[in-house]
Queue: 2 jobs
Job 1
Amino acid sequence: MREYKLPHKLGEVETQKTDLITDMWYELKKTGKQGDKEKGERVGDNQQKQIKMKNIVIFGAPGSGKGTQSELMIKHYGLGHISTGDVLRSEIKKGTELGKLAASYIDGGNLIPDELMISILANVYDGYGRGHKGVIFDGFPRTIPQAEALKKMLEERGDKVAAMIELDVPEEELMQRLIKRGEESGRADDNEETIKKRLKIYHSQTQPLIEWYKKEGLHHHVNGHGTLEEIFSNIKRVIDSLG
Ligand code: AMP
């Protein structure tokens, strides 16, 4: 497996990383998941509800329902969707270099290094072209450096995050949901030992983002315990209240 080193040690390692990202970008384009950025195409153009461009960070612990609620948001608002977990799992499935590298972190319940995640994110976001309706960031950011990088990346493009929506689910329920998901989907990282590690990392590295987004004036709390419809109607209330 290719060794990944942080790119402040530039040179060969940086080139390798860039190659990985470029390969992945073309792969995503081939599979039709992304719009053609040269043509300014965007994904999710068949919007139902007309809204001003809104980038939304859907936030919560593993198992909090980010993916499920994202699907409802995509359908209702015609937003684009970037799930960093899905991007990585797709790379693993295809057996790419990036996939092999990602698996070595994911299988142990660890986070992929910030630098790599940030480059992936920027490339996938640019795939939506200009003037899109907004994108849901699902599973990103997971650390404060990632949140800072997201802010900077969007600012450089004249865009911003309109809201961070925190799905709040009791810890015990998270555990039960993830174990059930593991049985149903066979996701390798949904086993008890890895789940515990992921929740621990969530508390130490990801949860501090709640305070970070509060300071940015973008944090919105949503009770993530209830039926899908109840939770989604709380999310809609937040999105519809945005200017
Ligand atoms: P998820 O599907 O969002 O739960 O992500 C599954 C796994 O992918 C995580 O446990 C991490 O190992 C990795 N991952 C996904 N998104 C990120 C991110 N933003 N930063 C670091 N690692 C990530």
Note: The chain has ten helices and five strands.
Job 2
Amino acid sequence: MGKDVIIACDFSSAKETFDFLDKFTGRKPFVKIGMELFYAEGPEIVRQIKARGHKIFLDLKLHDIPNTVMKAMAVLSRLDVDMTNLHASGTIRMMEGALKGLTRPDGTRPLLIAVTQLTSTDQESMENDLLIKEPIDEVVMHYAANAEKAGLDGVVCSPLEAGKVHDRCGKNFLTVTPGVRFADGDVGDQKRVMTPAEAKKIGSDYIVVGRPITAAADPVAAYERCCDEFIG
Ligand code: C5P
């Protein structure tokens, strides 16, 4: 399982996305398609980006009853994405259903990654809104362990948590980490950040990088810099 840099294509239209991807004439980056672009353009955007030779992380964060998630995952699997995700809070049964749905008749399937607690959830909102009273770090690790138990491939987490997730769930359990910034770059609205080089040192398997690449004056150079720092 190779380390890779995934570009978060947080655009609202196919045009903007292709104007951006057209700049990459050499190496084809692994791209993340989120809810905004998927809901704007539908499954066709996935087929088009795939046809251009990119790997795709479809970031739709499914969460529903196990049967519904199983059937939805079967549809995503036919779209031939390389990685997709769901909420671990949907329970182990839901995650098992997702894996079943995602597995193609020939036994292959995209990587399946769990979101533990969203980074927008803090201790206070977890206790008051969700009535979960445990420390948030423990909740994150417990959800990661559930994902591993269900047979998933890894979790989305902060690069600061990647080491702990590997300690708890094993070295082969993947950590996909957003919140990456260049040492000399803008932090923006991300609170806990790491450079690509630091994320590599701490053992992240994939870094998800959006604005440091998409908003750069030279996105291709920024992407290459990320790859140099993270993959080497
Ligand atoms: O632009 P930036 O590098 O902050 O983009 C990070 C990407 O990772 C965005 O698509 C964001 O939604 C996603 N993400 C995140 N933090 C999480 C989960 C996902 O920043 N905890």
Note: Residues 8, 10, 34, 118-119, 156, 178-179, 190, 208-212 surround cytidine-5'-monophosphate (CB under 6 Å).
